Structure formats: C-alpha cells, structure tokens
Fold this protein.
Amino acid sequence: MKDISEGIRARLGLENPFDTYVHDPSRIDRQGWNSRHGFFEVAIEAAAPRLIIELGVWKGMSSIHMAEIVKARGLGAEILAVDTWLGSSNHLAKPGRREELHPVDGYPSVYRTFLANVVDAGHQDVIVPLPMDGNSAAYALNKLGVKAGVIHIDASHEYASCLADLRNYWPLLADDGILIADDYGSWPGVSRAVCEFAAEVDRPLFGSMSKALLPKSPTLGFDLKVTRKRSYRRGDK
Ligand SMILES: C[S@@+](CC[C@H](N)C(=O)[O-])C[C@H]1O[C@@H](n2cnc3c(N)ncnc32)[C@H](O)[C@@H]1O
C-alpha cells in the first residue's frame, strides 16, 4: 500500500504508529456520532483538499468516512487526526460514562480502539494520528504554516472552548477551504459559538441537524434542501 501520508507525517516529524502497532481485533468498535453526515461529502467534493484536519476523532469513524470519500474520488488527500483520546467533560460529569474510555491502569485507552478501527478499515495509509490537545496542535500547525482544504471541528462542546477551537483552526484553513462544525443545532453552546464565529469572520453559515458548513471564501455558498425529519437526543456526547 502506497503511504501517501508520508507528506504531513514527515513534515511534522511524526512517528508512524502503524509501523509498530500490532492489530488487536478485539478493540474494534465502530461507535461514533454523526460520523457519516452528508456534509463530509459536500465539503470534500467542493474543496478537493490535499490535507484534511479533524479535531476530535474519538474512535475514528468520521476520519474513516472521510478517508473513504477521498479514496473514492482519487484525491490523494491525507487526514491529520488530532485528539487527546482522553474524552470530554461528560466522561467525568455524567455518571457511568467513565468506562467508555476503557481505562487501563487508570488511563484512557480509546486510542487503541481508534488504531484498531483504522487498520480494520485499511486506511492507515491516509490517516495520520496526532495525539495532542487541540489548542497546542493548532498553535504548532499555524507556526509550521500548515494549511488544510477541509477542517472538521468536533472536540469540546462547551461554548468557550468550541469558540476557541474555531478561532484557533480558522487560520489553518486554505483560502478556498471549508470548515465543518459538528453538533451545530444539537448542542446550544456549540450553536452559539458557531453562529458568533460566523459573524466574527463575516461568513455565511450553512446548517443542518448536527453539522454546519463555513466556507473560507466569502463568495462560496451552498443550496440546501430539507431531506427528512430527524429526531435527535440533544447534548448527548
Ligand atoms: C465527540 S468525540 C469525536 C467524534 C468523532 N468525530 C466521530 O465522528 O465519531 C470528541 C473527541 O474530542 C476529543 N477532545 C475533547 N477535547 C479535546 C481537546 N481539547 N483537544 C483534543 N481533543 C479533544 C475527545 O477526546 C473525543 O475523542
């Protein structure tokens, strides 16, 4: 398999975890949230990215979906998958959620599930994990002059930290790139942050249940149509 991810991995000086990873099929677990939303296809088709950044990866299902799309379209794009793999505030605030992190010796091991899912799906050639907090990663990527054609933001769902993520990652988006914000419309703090940010950067916002598109170009827009009624458990992550 040709390793086209050498590009961003080499540029960032990252080790390749798949060189040493011993596949453990018992860790495969394809659980995710909105991971196959139609906006991924729309954004990737419109931006034809060479690099995609995903902030908030969890078990890898949205990264894997984007890998499928870029391969089906022959785009040769890489997906830089940024996550601490330590979970979210709900894994402490909501009783019973801690075990979702599969702690080993008291430390979360979701990263093992992510690796198993990526290898099982056969996308280790295009998905490049960056285990780091989103803020530090954005700072370093900005400093290194990295630009991405599509950025998917799906990390913290609190207003202030979501707004900070949008502000941190917007400069990483190419001039013709498209930002996808997860949980727009389903988490009040996220919806507020995304709306405020769109106004702050003076860009139109295209929303659906649980995702929004924010193009970097002020002249790029999308026609949306309502396709179906959908019920949704609000603030469920
Ligand atoms: C909702 S999950 C991502 C779901 C995934 N995109 C999918 O479709 O299945 C949110 C992820 O964001 C990560 N996360 C939360 N805060 C973060 C931060 N400050 N930096 C990096 N990752 C963070 C968590 O570890 C978690 O894996």
